[in-house]
Amino acid sequence: MPLLRFDAVSKLYPGGHEALSGLSFDLERGEMVFVTGHSGAGKSTLLRLIHRAERASRGAVLFEGRNLGQLSVREVPYARRRIGMVFQDHRLLVDRSLFDNVALPLLIAGVARAEIERRVRTALERVGLLARERSLPLALSAGEQQRVGIARAIVAQPPLLLADEPTGNLDPQLAEDIMRLFSELPAQGTAVLVASHDLHLVRRLGKRVLVLDHGRLADDFRPQVRA
Ligand code: ADP
């Protein structure tokens, strides 16, 4: 069973606009994929279906074998705990330290204090910010803030991590650094799905790329990267 399956998924928004049309693909455990395409191609809609902010109009989105469209209101938060989310504007609490920001999902989940300390330090280490654990977010650069957002999204060790245009506010060099960080996460067992309009950047990373064009899957390939 794949971790995530889109099976002939269409999404019509009220007003009749078809944002996704007959979309099918699988994502395996620990796999990395970039979703790219023009503005309005359907990238955010695809992510919103996985996060259950929206439901498919036709077809099915299966996560760990369960049809997300059929979850009850009470079941949605449990499914979301298994899916980490990185936001473009990272949404950090500015009056809390990096440690506290990253610890938040574990506090909410009721994880014991010693376990929280261990996992937060592991997550901060993975994004290269362990030495800054006591800093406040505003003392960091934009790229570092985005790294904290990634640490917070992976700290509960979800099987799937989603990111919607995570480098939209960063300059090109920082954007590439952050994308490389995402592309290294699957080695730790987390599947990662990142939406980005920047096809040139994602091609350089040598990972699987899905290309959306007006809601349809136009391509599904793995670029050859020159050594
Ligand atoms: P992308 O993330 O690739 O820019 P979106 O998924 O945001 O694309 O949008 C896909 C299409 O669906 C666009 O034509 C957009 O205008 C439309 N759309 C997105 N959200 C809504 C909504 N809430 N209501 C109606 N149409 C929407």
How is the topology of this model organized?
Blueprint: E1 4-13, E2 17-27, E3 32-37, H1 43-50, E4 58-63, E5 66-67, H2 76-81, E6 83-86, H3 98-108, H4 113-126, H5 142-154, E7 160-164, H6 172-184, E8 191-195, H7 199-204, E9 208-213, E10 216-221
Parallel strand pairs: 3-8, 3-9, 6-7, 7-8
Antiparallel strand pairs: 1-2, 1-4, 4-5, 9-10
Bound molecules: adenosine-5'-diphosphate.
Structure in words:
There is one protein chain. Helix 3 packs across helix 4 and helix 4 crosses helix 5. It is globular, with a radius of gyration of 17 Å. By secondary structure, the protein is of the alpha/beta class. Helices cover 31% and strands 27% of the residues. The strands form two sheets. A six-stranded mixed β-sheet has the order 6-7-8-3-9-10, with helices on both faces. The protein has seven helices and ten strands. The model has no long low-confidence stretch (mean pLDDT 94). The site of adenosine-5'-diphosphate has 12 residues, from strand 2 and helix 1.
In short:
The chain has helices spanning 43-50, 76-81, 98-108, 113-126, 142-154, 172-184, 199-204, and strands at residues 4-13, 17-27, 32-37, 58-63, 66-67, 83-86, 160-164, 191-195, 208-213, 216-221.
- Beta-strand residue percentage: 25-35%
**What average pLDDT do the residues reach?**
94
**SSE succession:** EEEHEEHEHHHEHEHEE
| N-end to C-end Cα span | 34 Å
Percent range of helical residues: 25-40%
Q: Strand order, main sheet: write it out.
A: 6-7-8-3-9-10
Report the oligomer: single chain
**Small-molecule components bound:** adenosine-5'-diphosphate
What would the principal axes of the Cα set say about the shape? Answer: globular
